[in-house]
Amino acid sequence: MVNVIGLGYIGLPTALMMASHGVEVVGTDYNKELVATLNAGKTTFKEDGLDELFANAVAAGIKFSTEYQVTDTYIVSVPTPYDKFSKKVDACYVVAAVKEVMRVCPKGATVVVESTVSPGTIDRFVRPVIAEAGFEIGKDLHLVHAPERIIPGNMVYELLHNNRTIGADEREIGEKVKALYASFCLGDIVVTDIRTAEMTKVVENTFRAVNIAFANELAKICRHDNMDVYEIIRICNMHPRVNILQPGPGVGGHCISVDPWFLVGDYPSLTKVINESMKTNDGMPDFVLGRIHEIMEEKGITDTTRVGLYGLTYKENVDDMRESPTLQLLESQARHLAAPLKTYDPFITKDVVPNQYHDLDRFLADCDLVVVMVKHDEIRKNEDKLKDKVVLDCQNIIRLPGVYHI
What we know:
Distance between the termini: 51 Å
Number of helices: 15
């Protein structure tokens, strides 16, 4: 049996996928309401294919509990935030979960940490917890790092098809855990050491963050001299060895906006490019706010309550708001003491911010300037409703004439 610890955006799909492929699974989470919802037969977030996967897992016998189980394999999939001042990983949730595992696990068990951590985190924080509990790693208990590699909006497909990395002290244990993930994973699974596995996951997201920052900086340069950044990128990308990404209103989610800071925090004198790239990405919501003010002045719009932000999630067609650029923009705007902007997102059904709408037509009717922050399919299909609006398109998806861009 496998006990999956943490039933959030990563742990729940992982538990469901294993259960659907013949593995006996108990999912554990401290959140009683979340566990009750799952036991009532409902999923806790929206994701393509998740409900079907959930039904398959329930039919296969998956169970959900707030209690840690006595078993031979644990998968720890809890959040790993970072300290916004030191930029270092905050391993408190991983440490707390491992401590609870130590209370119930038998000798010979394997603890797999799926949570993304900075290189050396397992050495600094996890190994001491295991030693303090009286276990000798490699003899009484086995330790593995198997970082997740999936993205909201395409989780089910990527769980099945993405390549994976397994980091282990002992090759034999690494191969054993590889076989567990191979019960459903069709991609290549590489076995290496733990520190290498830690580093590769963080480097993957850092690579993406740096490339996004280049596109965002290019957008700022082009805005300064009134050039079309999208046309420039299109022409540059015709070169066979150039692939510039698209600029946007910021970077959100729990990977690209967080993981690179782990390297900055641990290697401050060696990460100049990464540090500046993250500052560039983090500064985009403020840049968009500046563009809003410029357009309001140009168009004679004086009432900020007539400005609406379309999209609250960090990416299209999901209900995940973690580190959302829109929320960052609203936080920045609040510091300027201006009246709150209107917001609307088809995937966010509960009120999470002031002036939030739950109907597209009502939202548009009350806005003179619409800022497209997220490229949900809904706005693509309804762009004709923007004909009489001033539009700031931060995603370059609206094809109406006269649209403004970042």
